[in-house]
Amino acid sequence: MVSIEIDGKKIEAEQGAMIIEVADANGITIPRFCYHKKLSIAANCRMCLVEVDGVKKPLPACATPISDGMVVKTQSDFAQESQKSVMEFLLINHPLDCPICDQGGECELQDVALEYGNDVSRFSEKKRAVVDEDLGPLIETEMTRCIHCTRCVRFGREVAGIRELGAVGRGEHMEISTFIEQSVDSEVSGNIIDLCPVGALTDKPSRYQARSWEMTQRDSVSPHDCIGANLHVHTLRNRVIRVVPKDNEAVNEVWLADRDRYSHQALDKSERLLKPMMRQNGADWKEVDWETALERTASKLNMISQTDGADQVAAIAHPSSTTEEMYLLQKVMRGLGSNNIDHRLRVTDFAWQKFEPLHPELGVELSDLENLDACLLIGANLRKEQPLASLRVRKATRYGDIASIGLYPVYHNFDVKHEIITDAETWLVQLAAIAKYLYENQAASDKEHWADAMDLEGLETLIAPINVQEEHREVAGMLLQADKASIILGASALEFSYAGHIRLLAKAIANLSGSSYGFFPHGGNSVGAYLAGAIPHRGPAGADVEQNGQHIKDLFEQNKKSYVLLKTEPGKESVIAEEARRSLAQADFVVALTCHADDEAFEYADIVLPVASFLETSGSYVNVNGLWQDFAAVVSAPGEAKPAWKVLRVLGNLLNLKNFDYVSAEDVRKEVKGRLSAVGDRIKPKWQCPETLPRDGFAPRPVNMYQIDGWLRRAPSLQQTALAQGREILKRPRLSPFHNIVGGV
Amino acid sequence: MTETAPKTLEKLLSSKGLEQAAVWVKKYPEERKRAAIIPIMTIVQEELGYLTQESMDAVADYLSCPKIAAYEVASFYSMFRLKEAGKYVISLCTNVSCMLAGSGDIKQWFQDELGIAPGETTSDGKFTLKEVECMAACGGAPMLEVDKQYHENLTVDKVAHLIHELK
């Protein structure tokens, strides 16, 4: 620690910190454009010049480390004159189009110019104009406004790991550009809009729709992945205009994935269902009032469960439904006497479900991903499955190593040290080989230590015939050497037809190497689904059920008489889409609680009930670290659409089920949480040794990252991106994290 | 964009050029090998006349750096040509010393006799004129450079003679 003085204020700070960091931490404002706390230091805008006693020249606060006894003045005449001069230079070429600029009102240049700019420009020559870039459907450009802070360039190089933008040309001719005609294809590209301090990069879908000061800012949580990114939603006259990130270091830092940012477009899409509709004698669809629709639903469900048995009623929820919705759905189902409820649309292997923990978990805090010394990714394409987690893992590659084992080559945005591409036949064997090397290279005392948690005899028999290859030794060695290691499973591991085996082997590897173990489940609220009991084999909070319901695969393969669908379109989402479509088509009665209804839905459903989307209802999501994040409605639902929890509550009442008198989503949440505290951590998964390593595994085709839920499928701008259409330039050079993170060229 | 097979540096350069490139790469640590980007692009330019997007991509792949990094370097340095140039590229200094010693007349001569202003190429594709900053030969001002050869203490007559010889 050293002590310095800024503007007469005595401050203790860490040696090596930059002046601007210390000033920011102590509430002293220094103007800046190129400096950003999450990016490397460029010191190219010179706006943060300050006076330091004993130094004759002004110094950039962002690139000047503090030293003991330093006296800094940010407001002295000398400092202010320097800052004003820089401002004058920056304004030379900046156009005066603030009245038509979307950044107007929230523009860093505008703010700083107000304070440091001159009233009159001394520059009478021609301003330069720059030809615009077309960066794709998400980012609007007006490159004449660019002040060359290079934040967007550094974001690509350092954070996203995919460098698409650069500073081309020099001096007055320098332009931020892709140089060749090319869109920016990164899955987190929208962040450069927030980073841009001026109006050069702005939100394309919301262009010219609102001025920043007219909009109201409300908070919400993203439903598209189990990170639970925090959102600031900007609305105008009950309409969502745009979404920007809300800072939360523990969750999304300051970033958003593009799908978190642009999925709101689906809210006012034409396929939006506005009124309850019912099929009349066969084929005709008719709009009805809520009462009719719900009474009909209740009587149909009642009738089928009484005449054909409660097990003929099945409910499928999308894992991006709120915890409250899923809790009420399972309560309705279990009230009818059926445990046939599931949300695991993309899981194929249910053999080991009774050994599962209380809920899916990552085993490591999201914010700790960046501190890992080693990480083994199994069947994970993090960039596309969990874009924000991928950014964290990328940070880990500064000092740590990543290994990846999966079925197909993945173009990660970080360096992978050991990559094993396997086929479905030998995937399990490869994992077992890593486990074998770990097992054989441990001291006997360690083995005793695991005997409680693991079935070592079984493991020994299982791995005995396996050949350990060099690549397995490398991966195992990497895990053994690391202080902090993590085994993380991704979507293709969970979708594999022997996913249970993979999970057990991965857990064995984790135990044997002292690593943490976990996985990223599908959808935004799979954790909430487990806690709420939207699974056939356990009730809310992991409670036992008298008799296991059927899992989703059986529900679709053994045609049921009736299906209740919550925010899901199984024909587009299920891993067994064909079976799903067929079973829905044959069912006597299908009721869909849905935001959108397309031809397919009208084909299979008998009643469609319009429900509120994630920005129109209150509720909560639980992220992969078990963090509950609740939110309120940001805008009201269009037409007669109602929050799904209200619909389910009324349905519960109509079915004469007990304890269905909730007044708010919070009541429901309290009930779920109450049940959780009652159960505690009763479920302690025991490790089971698989008896064999089957070779007939099957891996379903991975789903596009912009197809995973109904909102993404109906967000036009996202659907126009290269990523959605599978034409992004896949091949990236292998980038060394060394020169890509620590700045430099 | 679908993935077509782009030409690698190995396909673009002669074996001698490749040898030279390998020498440059060896001078830097493996993870910093992109530092060789300037000499290697110089080699490419010498062999192919100018830098195309294809050849810049090839250099970027060869050095495992993002393609945009190659574009940045190539567009930053005026010695790299991104457009086809004449057989002879004449770099005429018009900086202070040369200007005082009469480089303006020489520039005018090129305009009058060959019909090219700085940045232009003669219609027969022989000569390209480039206006450059000081080349550190003020003692012999005015000067120009062509084919890595300095020509100093120029007069209009001397330039006319030189061009005639090159023709």
How does this structure look, described?
The complex is a heterodimer of chains A (745) and B (167). Chain A is built from 26 helices and 26 strands. Chain A has 745 residues and is α/β, with parallel strands linked by helices. Among the domains of chain A are: 91 residues, Ubiquitin-like (UB roll) (Roll), CATH 3.10.20; 219 residues, Rossmann fold (3-Layer(aba) Sandwich), CATH 3.40.50.740; 130 residues, Dimethylsulfoxide Reductase, domain 2. Chain A has a seven-stranded mixed β-sheet. Chain A has a five-stranded mixed β-sheet with strand order 2-1-5-3-4, sandwiched between helices. In chain A, helix 8 runs parallel beside helix 17 and helix 11 packs parallel to helix 16. Helix content of chain B is 46%, strand content 11%. In chain B, helix 2 runs antiparallel to helix 3 and helix 3 packs antiparallel against helix 4. The longest helix of chain B has 12 residues. The model of chain B has no long low-confidence stretch (mean pLDDT 90). Chains A and B meet through strand 7 of A and helix 4 and helix 5 of B.
Question: TL;DR?
Answer:
The complex is a heterodimer of chains A (745) and B (167). Chain A is of the alpha/beta class and 745 residues long.
